[in-house]
## 1
Amino acid sequence: MRRPLSALLAVLALLTAVAGLPTPAQAAHPAPGSATRYTMTAFTNTSESNMYVYDSPDATDFTLRRGPAYTPPSGMIRDPSIFRHTDGFYYLTYTTRTWSAPSTTIGFARSADRLTWTFLYDHTVPISGLARTWAPEWFVDTDGSVHIILSASTAAGGEYTFRPYKLTATTPALTAWSAPTALSGITPNYIDTFLVRIGSTYHAFTKNETTKYIEYATASSLTGPYTLQRTGDWAGFGAGAEGPALVQLDNGGWRIYYDGYSAGRYWYSDSHDGFATWSTPTELPGVTGTVRHLTVLKERVPGGVTLPTDTDRSLRSANYPDRYAVVRADGLGYVDPVTSSSTAAEKRSATFAIVPGLADPHCYSFRDSAGRYLRHRDHRVRFDADDGTAVFDGDATYCARPGSTTGSVRLESYNVPGRYLRHYDYELRVDLHQDTSTFRADSSFTAVGPWA
């Protein structure tokens, strides 16, 4: 029996509040008329002097919007970090020198549209004996205070022996900063510290420059003391990973991006259990091998694509317009030819009720004439009766993204972000996004009038 959505959300809110995880109000897909946009800023393997801007509707499929988008008047622009301030402007902070040069400043720039940037100033970090300062990252606390977390080393401690420090903005215009405060508990020789706050807990992801692993620490205060919770290759990110950057996905999970600098590749991994376990690392399609040390800003913006709900429709393949998503007698999904001459049974097999998503009402589920739902299992699409579990709800929920042709949509798996409903050898599957025109076409469908 289908459970009332309100009851499910109430139970989930209680569980997440106890666990200190985001509630549905904090993490959910946007309502019709709005969309999620993930903006990436990065420098590249070929240029430390220019910053590039990409964006994505799903945190996986990034499109270059402008490159170069910003070149500072002098110095480099490594490790650019972006956020949007309460004044409506976007702000960058970045490393101003190449890794081998002494560096005592961090840079600032501002933009009204993410694409055209104006240099503001370089800020000299007032740490006694400072040798190098790297990788400044914005951190906005729940009280609205604006901070920068940066990695700094001193000549006395060893010019390549870094530790994290906090700077706090002392003016709303971000023109003045507090004296640096070291984050206690994260001992020297850690770089690229990235913070997120969930409930009352601060979570730090930081690279141990001795072991070359990204490690994980928590604290009840922004400046610590932090306690290392996981060390070594605890998450499967591998040695040589650096530059961690996190963003929360619409389904409540968290995605970490990191630079596999020794191999010249870029990776991501997802966690849906409060950072305890992580998905198998996946190369970030389209930009891996190009971008370096990125951050990703999540926003809600007007727009997005939608499907009609509580109505019957057929799903026509965008690149094989004579074929439609169907359920065959074996209960599996395919794309088969359907025409006006098809049998009544064939037409029924290509007709589905589109209903609000079982796991998120702003996404979609598809129910056949027998009352079964389109769901994935072992990455294959099948039609099963609802068993009343949260796993089933997630397997049977898909979120609409722009398709490859006008009027078409791509359907991203709710519980395995980055995987899309697509046809392969005419079988319906949920496969990892690939940065190819073929994959985008194979995963695009148009909702048309029902065959039955």
## 2
Amino acid sequence: MKSAVYTKAGQVGLASIERPQIIEADDAIIRIVRTCVCGSDLWSYRNPEIEEGHRNSGHEAIGIVEEVGENVTTVKSGDFVIVPFTHGCGECDACRAGYDGTCDRHIGNNWSDGVQAEYIRFHYANWALIKIPGQPSDYTEGMLKSLLTLADVMPTGYHAARVANVQKGDKVVVIGDGAVGQCAVIAAKMRGASQIILMSRHEDRQKMALESGATAVVAERGQEGIAKVREILGGGADAALECVGTEAAIDQALGVLHNGGRLGFVGVPHYNNRALGSTFAQNISVAGGSASVTTYDKQFLLKAVLDGDINPGRVFTSSYKLEDIDQAYKDMDERKTIKSMIVMD
């Protein structure tokens, strides 16, 4: 089968590898129907020390179950499923509290990779996979796009709003205008925010966010951006949703909050010098981590997509074949597309 691999910094190619097999009793083999490139994949893509042939870090897909291990009872061969990037067990304390993104039982191996491929072996499949009614042919391409977002970016955007405890009437600021930031705007609106400001410098992304429920856009950064947000809101924000993963984005988020505000961060951190003590004088509540994909999808996000209440699939602004995976990465890296979808034959 074909699978994407990193060939060197700034380049992705295809390799022919063995099709995966069932190894553990709770495995599932999935034939990928749609996958995509995540903003977090670009960290590996840009890494100057990446080794040739390194397995791709792709982790989002929808697909068809080909085979299941003997302990898998929740899905069967032929089922159409969301393939989340997380592998919660559904039974531990963390999962039962709604934090399957950081399952207590699967610490260290709770995230997928290698999903930009024709087939994958999905570990801990029994609870984590989410069954979609019918088959891919039953859905429009637009709906397939929205279903694909449920593997990561829509639940991740929702997670930022949940852990920041966004409530009806809140004033919310979203830092990051990529796919996760766009979905955080949708999530803030779902939870009843009265004002939603997106911090963005890109006109196409600003327009998308305004169509999804943002009430204002701020292009400025640093102290100038903070001042502009506070001017629009008439003070600080109740909640800030950080969807980037850099120290600068955290600084921006903390700066827009009023004392006693709440920060939800879901950008994978690429910094190590942000001290929690720095929030003490502001009484800021800080929470974040990987999203509870399975919990949110099963409880309400899948229904919201199927009912047409939300349309997160609009973040896929370009589609590619697996053979064009290098261009899919390149276009995201150069901000020519918000999120690249890979359409499998």
## 3
Amino acid sequence: MNTMRIAICGNGKIAHEALFALQHVEGADVVAVCVRPQSIDKGRALCEEYHIGRLYTDYDEMLACADIDFVYVGIVNSMHYEYGMKALLAGKHVIMEKPFTATLQQAEELRQTAISRHLYLFEAVTLFYVDNYAIIKRHLPDIGPVRLVQSNYSQYSSRYDRYLDGEIAPVFDPKQAGGAMGDINVYNLNLVVGLFGMPKEVIRRDNRGFNGVDTSGVALLVYDGFIATCCGAKDSASPGFAIIQGEKGYIHVKGIPSILEEIEVVTPGNSNNYSLPPMPHRMVPEFLEMVRMYHDNDYDAMVRHLDVTLDVMRVLTSPCS
């Protein structure tokens, strides 16, 4: 099996996590890092820590390298489209961090470009690739017709106090596609839309900060026969969970929906718990599956994941009413 050669764009927390996870992924090799010129010292530190041979501050120069297969885009949300499109036009496959893009139109254009060139385009959403997601899907018929779904992922941001003092990080900047819906509630949306498809109606309510960014909020997704509430916050905290309630039982995700670390399936007279086995990092399963799809030429599986991405973007970009 040929190794999937990856270049990492970015030097923030998510880039660190991706680099750590990829150390544990057979069939993938990080061959380069690309950072902005002002971040070259951070880029050098990354290359030294993870034993990466090449560092670029010119994205176009990096894209010209023939020995790079994939570009992992882990930069500010507002730049996802530009970096992703440039990579696709250069003939590179792309792994995009969430949220996929700032607008639905951008997402549709990336999808069209990738498919027209038969390139792989992934959104890095961890929950789809763990065993417990497949277990949830398998047990959905057991709980009977679904009537209500609740999900909550709320985490007090380490940058929120500084935001209140007027220091605006990209995650709290609406001009850079920041906000709680795209940064944290997006995992709830992926869980619900991944399981049940595009809702008939989306009703969104946000708490807005002084610069108009959504610091927390709720999306109500309306389906035939049931509704789903997706709650996410960066200005407050609570235990994470998701509960899928059916007429004959329920499925309880214990913990934040991005990981699905432990789930309980309850039906009359029966209760089963499923826990994920220990893993080096939560991102390892998604990278392993991306490697598999690429090497098995399982392009249809990639397209199915991309279709979910587009539906999530349709929900994510719904106007707040």
